[in-house]
Amino acid sequence: MESIPLSNGVKMPRLGYGVYQVDPTTCEASVREALEVGYRAIDTAQAYHNEEGVGRAIKGSGLPREDIFLTTKVWVSNAGQEKARASIEESLRKLQTDYIDLLLIHQPFNDYYGTWRAMEEAYKAGKVRAIGVSNFFPDRLVDLCQFVEIRPMVNQVETHALYQQKAAHAIMEKYGVVHESWGPFAEGRKDFFTNPVLAAVGAKHGKSVAQVALRFLLQSDVVVIPKSVHKARMAENLQVFDFSLDAEDMAAIQALDQEESAFFSHYDPATVEFITGLEL
């Protein structure tokens, strides 16, 4: 698996397996299958309610812990230094591990500065190998970078062929933050899997729309964490390192950018009310 170095030298796989919306009752089996087909990076979160399943799958895989890059995220209701500190310990317990490879602030709301201080503590204590954020748009990311001791190493945001986050990517590059995509297939919205441009590029290379979508992001220096609960598709999503998109392919896909979310806006007060009202 290809990897990318974070600002502290830790190597992060460029492609991993995400478990957002994977039912807690089936998560262990799904992660076990993902590890069996070759994934070595697993992305979960406190808010997914499936950290226990991820932990059991990793523990039972027989793989050395150091061979797996494990990510989880601190939820909004656990924000603030004291609550975040306690939630990190809880995540370690649920994941059955002594350390987390990458810990992210899940949303840019509530006392995320207090959360960040708790994450810096965990990082210095060796409980976390790298720290970062998720869903931080450029204004919030710059604000955080300007006033913390340890800058975020990763920012995980909605990114796909129809919403490429070019301006945000430039800011991440400026501050040495690795760009990671959630929703690399836009969860199938906006007729993603039948998009004629993606389909044509796929036909040219003998690849699926999903594989083209992932390859485009990888060649755009974006880390990807596709999700599937079907083992065959898990394997298919890994087969993206045996071909390359040429300049014509990249330009055609770059032209698909609609510059708007396929889901929601973090600047919409109703969205913020919804997110901040979710308790674990």
Tell me about this structure.
GO terms for molecular function: oxidoreductase activity, acting on the CH-OH group of donors, NAD or NADP as acceptor. The active site is at 48 (proton donor). Belongs to the aldo/keto reductase family. The protein is of the alpha/beta class and 280 residues long. It has one domain: Alpha-Beta Barrel (TIM Barrel), CATH 3.20.20. The chain is 41% helix and 14% strand. The protein contains 11 helices and 10 strands. The strands form 2 sheets. The protein has an 8-stranded parallel sheet with strand order 3-4-5-6-7-8-9-10. A hairpin with a 5-residue loop joins strand 1 (3-5) and strand 2 (11-13).
Shape: globular
Helix content: 40-55%
The first-level CATH class is given as Alpha Beta
Largest sheet: 8 strands, parallel
Distance between the termini: 34 Å
Write the CATH fold name.
Answer: TIM Barrel
Family: Belongs to the aldo/keto reductase family.
Organism: Evtepia gabavorous
Protein name: Aldo/keto reductase
Pfam families: Aldo_ket_red
SSE order and pairing:
Elements: E1 3-5, E2 11-13, E3 17-18, H1 24-37, E4 41-43, H2 51-60, E5 69-74, H3 81-95, E6 102-105, H4 112-124, E7 131-134, H5 138-147, E8 154-158, H6 166-174, E9 178-182, H7 196-205, H8 209-219, E10 222-224, H9 231-238, H10 247-254, H11 269-276
Parallel strand pairs: 3-4, 4-5, 5-6, 6-7, 7-8, 8-9, 9-10
Antiparallel strand pairs: 1-2
Helix pairs in contact: 1-2, 1-9, 2-3, 3-4, 7-8
Protein name: Aldo/keto reductase
Keywords: NADP, Oxidoreductase
Family: Belongs to the aldo/keto reductase family.
